[in-house]
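ENTRY TYPE: paired fold submission
RECORD: A
CONTENT: sequence, then structure tokens
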Amino acid sequence: MPRPRTILSRLAPVAAIAAASVALAGCASGQPASSAEPAASGESSTGLTIDQVQEAGVLVVGTEGTYSPFSFREGGTGELTGYDVDIITAVAEEFGVEVEFVETPWDAIFAALDAGRVDVIANQVSITPERLERYLFSEPYTYSPGVLIVAEGSDIESFEDLTGRTSAQSLTSNWAEIATEAGADVEEVEGFAQAAELLRQGRVDATINDRLTYLDYVQSQGGETGLVDVAETEETSENALAFRAGSESLVTAVDEALAALAADGTLTEISQRYFGEDVSQP
């Protein structure tokens, strides 16, 4: 049975030492970034224009539907909702079309785009050099650096302070590499929730993870965690909507819609709803 998808599993590595293993973004337990890349498919489809979308009156969107808080069903069976779901719905409304969601497993989602079964992927896709060779991307609508997280009152204030300290990390994640490079001893955990619990118990000194993972955790705990983020990595993951090559006019229309939604505060409102702050801006 496949392991649950996490925020980190879709996020590109955000620190310099992780750049060589760029993958994709992902959700709340802080598992390692997925190595899944655009799947080769025997099928291929041409791009799509904004005129074609408006004539059809619908934008067909590929998304997982099992990836909280970005694309999921409340209780597993309720209405499809989430940050990415709300963003793409608002975008489509800007140019006057309905949205049809096609819930697709992550491992098959690029194949669905390649084959023309969906028009766009809205599923926290990180912009990477490899993907840029094959796909078009909108302007980013999610920005997320890595963050150093400690218990309130800790004397750790920077990555340099990790020397000789203990950091709770999944051993297969890029965050474990960052902690090790900073001089920390790594305590193995299965995910962010376990790392957070060890921090609160005083059994480890820190943990490093994606900022979205941390914010989602804070929201799930009602804002009271006893933890604080004290430093950020220099590099930031940028996540955007992905399109087939040849869809330039559609991407332009989507970018204009995103700009309008940023200007009128819609992106900020959606972001605040899911993360407690605006992750739609760098």
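RECORD: B
CONTENT: sequence, then structure tokens
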Amino acid sequence: MKDQNPANTVRSPYLVAWHVWSALFMREFVSRMTTDRFAPVWLFLQPILHIVILVAVRDFIGRGRLIPGAEFIPWLVIGITTYIMFRTLWIQGMNAIQSNKALFAYRQVHPADTVLVRCAMEAKLQAFVLMIMVFMFTGLGHEMIPDAPLEAVEVLLAMTLLGLGMGLMTSVMVTFFPESAKIVNLISLPLYFLSGVILPIQFMPHGIQEFLLYNPLLHAVELIRAEFFSTYHPVRGVSLWYVYQWAICTILFGLALHVKFKIRMVAR
């Protein structure tokens, strides 16, 4: 008779990877939601505070809320939540290895697993936050239902992959040079302003627009607004394929770094 003992069953590498990812996902989710008593609230409070503060500042300095083809507050909500999604995936992915060092004692767990799972978990949370924001502001009387929902999801997927790629690359860098995390945080601040999140790029001179178009985040932010608001005209030259090119290159480069430095990262 064949041995039916599950302990003697040989699992395939794919099944092992799936079990590792499932366990890591539950661990990351519980940790994220129980960091402190306000952790779930802060997920929604962060973009709302951004919007309230920016609207107040814009009114204080006497700037109008005129956005060609879109209402100001929905335009701002979509831009802020999209950028926060990217930044959260980037920063959380970057710190994943440092937060899970103890798990590398198990040979089934690789450093790249922690980054992949944490970014997947953050992507789901941020997508849920975006849905809540859309329904909440729609209930307040703003036009927030996307005109092209499937295309909007595609743009969010590109942003998610780009955040994953940046997280994979910088997680290796931060493992060997912890001080570089400060540089990454500093870089994320000017990106906030250079990605068209709070200022319409259409109002800037053409020469500056051409320079800003090298930033893939600008392409994603402009495109998702165009998918939400049918009358909104994004900056000429934006392309979703350009965002995917950046995402693919950063993911492949990040995975290559993980393969090359895996042993050294586990040993640290």
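NOTES ON RECORD B: DSSP finds ten helices and no strands in the chain. The mean pLDDT is 85.
STATUS: closed
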